[in-house]
Amino acid sequence: MIALVTNTGALALATKALLAPALIVAVLSALSLTQRMAKRLTFALALAFLADIAPGFTPWAHGATSVLFLLALIVYAATLAPYWLRELDGLHLLLAIPYGGVVIGLFLACAGGAGSLLPLLVVYALVLAAVAFLSAGVNPLTWIGGTLLLLSSSVLGMSWFLPGAWIPESDLWVMGSYIAGNALLVLGLLRTVPARRWAPQPSSGASLVIIEG
């Protein structure tokens, strides 16, 4: 974030690439890699890492970044779905309306500028909406995280595909919501695993027992 404020592009790209590895360390410090949750989150974050470094190595950064992060979102959605089904209720179903409305509106606004990337934009919009919707039905951390990822991609999509769009400090909005969204989504998913290494443990302190005779 500091690198963006100071217009240090190379430093911003380098530090952004540290996000996914840091979250992978957090995942593996909490879970064994043999656990399904650890495997899925590590895979999703590895894809996000490749998406983060793609602009530095490819001349077609938009497409490469979008495809890689799309795959990461698909893994996130597959990880969220079982927990969403477990906590299913009417409120969670109603959340499809605002999330769907946001994604449809953004797609209609950005479709004209997508050009050959239009099919990718359609799939990306659907998967992004699914992640935001599913994350809302797991716990508050995933809910906020999924919503922030939706915000990040929405602002980025407008800057790429919506001619004439101008959002003040858009880079800061995109990066801040991207970092916080990924972190909260991962931490929220880790909270669904009772057997994590740093889970709160029951107190083993002494207790007072009174026996009436």
TrEMBL record:
In Pfam terms, one family for this protein is YhhN
Q: Which residues cross the membrane?
A: 12-34, 41-61, 67-85, 92-115, 121-141, 148-166, 172-190
Q: What is the lineage of its organism?
A: Bacteria, Bacillati, Actinomycetota, Actinomycetes, Micrococcales
Q: What is this protein called?
A: Lysoplasmalogenase
The membrane-topology field of this record reads: Multi-pass membrane protein
Q: Which keywords fit this entry according to its UniProt record?
A: Membrane, Transmembrane, Transmembrane helix
Q: Which family does it belong to?
A: Belongs to the TMEM86 family.
Q: Which residues form a coiled coil?
A: none
Q: Which InterPro entries match?
A: TMEM86B-like
| UniProt-annotated location(s) | Membrane
